[in-house]
Amino acid sequence: MSKKKVVVSLGHEALGYTISDQWDAVKDTARALADLVEAGCQLTITHSNGPQVSMIHKAMTELRRIYIDYSPAPMCVCSAMSQGYVGYDIQNSLRSELLSRGISKPVSTILTQVTVDPYDEAFYEPKKAIGRYMSSEDAEIEIKKGNYVTEVPGKGFRRVVAAPKPIDIVEIETIRTLADAGQVVIACGGGGIPVIEQKHVLKGASAVIEKDCIAGKLASDLKADEFIILTSVEAVYTDFGKDTQAPITEMTVSQAKEYIEKGQFGEGDMLPKIEAAITYLENVPDGSVLITSIDKTNAALHGKTGTRISADCS
Q1: How many angstroms separate the CA atoms of 96 and 110, rounded?
Q2: Cβ–Cβ < 8 Å for 222, 9
Q3: Region of poorest pLDDT, from 18-27, 84-93, 99-108, 113-122
Q4: Which of 37, 68, 268, 291 is deepest in the core (most CB within 10 A)?
Q5: Residue whose C-alpha is closest to residue 190's, from 81, 43, 265, 270
Q6: Which residues have CB under 8 Å from 53's CB, separation 6+?
Q7: Beta 184-186 vs 107-109: how paired, if at all?
């Protein structure tokens, strides 16, 4: 019997915010992922990289400031570095956890490129803040380089980059081949490395791709049976953070869209996840979406918590 194909999207809580945080966090994450493997899931995993890519970008920028012979690292290179670094920790922790349960299964990380449109509106109005806080003098230097910056009151200035929509996952056939061979695959980390096609050349773009957006596309492209989003909350809520907060146990795509119209989901947190779920279900209507937290994964698998989203009945 073929195993259920599942794409899992990991948020910041699965990785932590520093090197030492990540070292500890991935052990808990590995246990939750191993539970899914034991439950008969064939996993393809994607993850966030916000703190990690910002740390790398800051380190490379400071290196250039101190040693002028070093070239500054573009965002696409920082993204590639973060994919390798995060994938390394996840794959080793998960492999170790699986072996401790008597499960011998290859776990591999694929450095993944994602094509974007050079004329995407996001490039004309960058909004995604990255890297260190800068003084006004350093911000002026960035502006002279042609980069965009934004002021954060009381903290300084930060560079901002575009967050264009993904078009194609370049390594999708490699990911699919490994997944079909029964391997656990880690791919599209941090949204993937954004690249622009120029004839037969892929050129790195000064941008980032939203993790939730690419997770929905990855689940769609793989025709996954289930799309699991592991985040910081146990379930999706109405009136989140208010006295009237209430969990949503189940909803359809139409109901999700109604909640969006009513402004129920935060633009910087839950909304992108719900939009990713809708993208997936509109492409794979027989699929299912589960949103829950890392520590509640097992309970959510057994229907005890979490939020289930499904396509509308035909």
Answers
A1: 19
A2: no
A3: 18-27
A4: 291
A5: 81
A6: 75, 78, 79, 81, 82, 130, 190, 208
A7: parallel
256-259: long-range contacts (C-beta < 8 A, 24 or more apart)? 256/309
- Nearest 5 degrees, angle CA 281-CA 207-CA 176? 40
- Whether the CB-CB separation of 162 and 206 falls below 8 Å is answered with yes
How far is 276 from 88, CA to CA, in rounded Å?
A: 26
CB 12 within 8 A of CB 152: no
135: Cα within 13 Å, side-chain hemisphere = 2
Look at residues 183, 185, 184, 159 and name the one whose alpha carbon lies nearest to residue 172: 185
Show Cβ contacts of residue 238 under 8 Å, excluding neighbours closer than 6 positions.
244, 245, 246, 248, 259, 264
DSSP assigned state of 310: E
- What is the helix (H) or strand (E) element at residue 4, kind and residue range? strand 4-10
Token pair in block for residue 69: 């012979």
Cα–Cα distance for residue pair 147/160, rounded to 1 Å: 8
| Helices 270-283 and 253-261, packing angle to 10 deg | 150
In this predicted model, what pLDDT tens digit does every residue of 14-65 receive, in sequence order? 898 888 889 899 999 999 999 999 999 999 999 998 888 888 888 887 888 7
Token pair in block for residue 26: 């991935």
Give the three-state DSSP class for 234. coil
H-state helical runs in the chain: 19-38, 50-66, 75-100, 136-144, 172-180, 211-221, 253-261, 270-283, 297-301
CB distance 74 to 196 below 8 Å: no
CA dist 197 and 169 (Å) reads 12
Tokens 């899992």 correspond to what residue? 8
Spatial separation of the C-alpha atoms in residues 61 and 299, rounded to whole Å: 43
Dist. CA 29–CA 15, nearest whole Å:
8
Tokens of 47: 């993850």
